[in-house]
Amino acid sequence: MDRDDASRRAFLQAAAAGLGFALIRVVPVHATPAAMDGAIRKVVGSSTISKGRVTLELPPLSENGNTVPLTVSVESPMTQAEHVRAIHIFTELNPQPDVVSFRFGPRAGRARVSTRIRLANTQTVTAIGELSDGSFWSTSANVVVTLAACLEDA
Amino acid sequence: MSGRIARLVVALALALLAGTAPAGEIPTAERRSGYELMGRETRAMQDDDTANPGMLGVLEGEAAWARKSGAAGRACADCHGDARASMKGVAARYPAFDAALKRPVNLEQRINLCRTERQQAPALAYESRELLALTAFVARQSRGVPIDVAADARTQPFLDAGRAAFYRRQGQLNLACNQCHDENWGKRLAGNPIPQAHPTGYPVYRLEWQSLGSLQRRLRGCLTGIRAEPYEYGAPELVDLELFLMWRARGMAMETPAVRP
Amino acid sequence: MANALVNVPPRARRGDIIEIKTLISHPMETGYRRSQLGATIPRDIIRLFVCTYNGTEVFRAELHPAIAANPFIVFSTVATESGTLAFQWTGDNGFSASESAAITVD
Question: Domain B31-48+148-260: what homologous superfamily?
Answer without folding.
Answer: Cytochrome c-like domain (1.10.760.10)
